[in-house]
Amino acid sequence: MKMITQPLILVVSVAAALALSACNKTNDTGSTSGMPPSAMTAPSTAPAPPAMTPTQADTSGAVSVTSVDVGKSVDSSSNRVTGAGSSFAPKDNIYASVVTNGSGPAKLDARWTFQDGQVVHEDSKTINASGEQATSFKIDKPDGFPAGNYKVEISLNGSMVSSKDFSVQ
User: Fold this and answer.
1) Per the confidence metrics, is the pTM higher than 0.90?
2) Please, are residues 94 and 144 in contact by the beta-carbon 8 Å criterion?
């Protein structure tokens, strides 16, 4: 019985040695295993982009609309509505102030409608934004707007981005 066990141990030992040596064999691509070289390479990690300063963050990227207000007047230097409101008298001037942020050229459209969908006025302005800025639109009617509900819809580059409802009483 001792004679059979020794050759069996010898065969198992040789098989194990061959299996281990096959794992470390260098193939013709330079790989030290049966896997292709691409599977052996460590994943590369690109360095993170440098952090942006607040000034860069405010002035880079596409233009977006951040707010829209309606009111009876605008500050001439900032184009922002002073005294925002949603109710107007028939002979009031009615302003919409559109605040944008970002940089680059953009087209703003204001479409003013009456409660039945009738278009009261449409206006477009092209801006060359650099950071936060306001653009104002105005409607007026010297003989007075009819009483009722109105809406101004603001579009940026052809896509509606905001609307404000208001009334004339």
Assistant:
1) no
2) no
Whole-number Å distance between alpha carbons of 118 and 148 = 12
Average pLDDT for the chain: 78
Within a 10 A sphere around the Cβ of 90, how many other Cβ atoms? 12
Quick: pLDDT tens for 81-108. 998 999 999 999 999 999 999 999 999 9
C-beta separation of 97 from 80 below 8 A: yes
**Tokens found for residue 111:** 């479409």
According to DSSP, the residues that pair with 98 across neighbouring strands are 68, 135
Eight-class DSSP state of 35: S
How many DSSP H helices and E strands does the chain contain?
Answer: 3, 9
What tokens does 164 get?
């404000």
Contacts of 31 (CB under 8 A, 6+ apart): 37, 40
